[in-house]
């Protein structure tokens, strides 16, 4: 198979979808790997390293899309790429269709095969291709939140860890999954007083056992959230419903309960956000302020640490890329149920319920494409 890796052209997206190590494995399996010139530079991988691994370098994104049978990316295609995607072409990347109606319709129009990292789901309901970036984003949420609590950046002027004689800052984490767990660990490590909320009592029991003493678990409901946001210095939105829009746990009216300079970091923004006032921002212009509350809503947070993120992501994606290249998408998905759950759009039809529900689109039976 011919595998193409374009440069990520989304604002300040510095990751690359394959490393030289991945190229070696694909070439060993008799596949052709096409890398756009400079695609790996921001992640620390040179064109020479890719060539040494066996890849071919092409100068333009148009040539990559025109030549490849499978496109492997990091982030969803943006408008400039829509017209480059061909009928029947397999595109394997993060799509987050439920947060973008234009993207959904563009991919339906392209009649491509859209296989989304974020909905590849194992039998235990874990999301193996979302986990590594969730780990990065959860940890970054505290790093960025702590920065924007600084007064020159419009925050409260609170040091999360405090100092002797001064109490630590208070962090509220909404969601006890991968993002929330990593955020809570980071905040606790800095010495903050942390509250982590989730709707699952079994999950809260697990968190209660593994977290340090400065992390408290509380059942997530509207009443408890309203109470917690009154005193929180940093709030992290970490709620995920795979492939579907995140629920709004904090509404516009609830901002009035927060103290001026409170910082909210909505990691769920690429799935629509769990804070009503959040809208996607970029690393170039990461924050905005509503009702004196600082909103950090960068939709590709791991893109700011591309070396770490690229290695973490490709460690997880490469086995699936190899399966798709070796067997073709139909056979690979027929044999691997987790990979099959990653199919969102096939040949102009929606085959993932969360995407159909998000935009009120007809849902096609995925099995029709395997008969």
UniProtKB/TrEMBL annotation:
Q: What class of enzyme is it?
A: oxidoreductase
Q: What family does this belong to?
A: Belongs to the AlaDH/PNT family.
Q: What is this protein called?
A: Alanine dehydrogenase
Q: Where are the transmembrane segments?
A: none
Q: What EC number(s) does its UniProt record assign?
A: 1.4.1.1
Q: What chemistry does it catalyse, as a reaction equation?
A: L-alanine + NAD(+) + H2O = pyruvate + NH4(+) + NADH + H(+)
Query: What keywords is this UniProt entry annotated with?
Result: NAD, Oxidoreductase
- One matching Pfam family, short form? AlaDh_PNT_N
Organism of origin is Lacihabitans lacunae
This chain is encoded by the gene named ald
Give residue ranges for domain Alanine dehydrogenase/pyridine nucleotide transhydrogenase NAD(H)-binding.
Answer: 149-297
Q: Which residues form the Alanine dehydrogenase/pyridine nucleotide transhydrogenase N-terminal domain?
A: 4-137
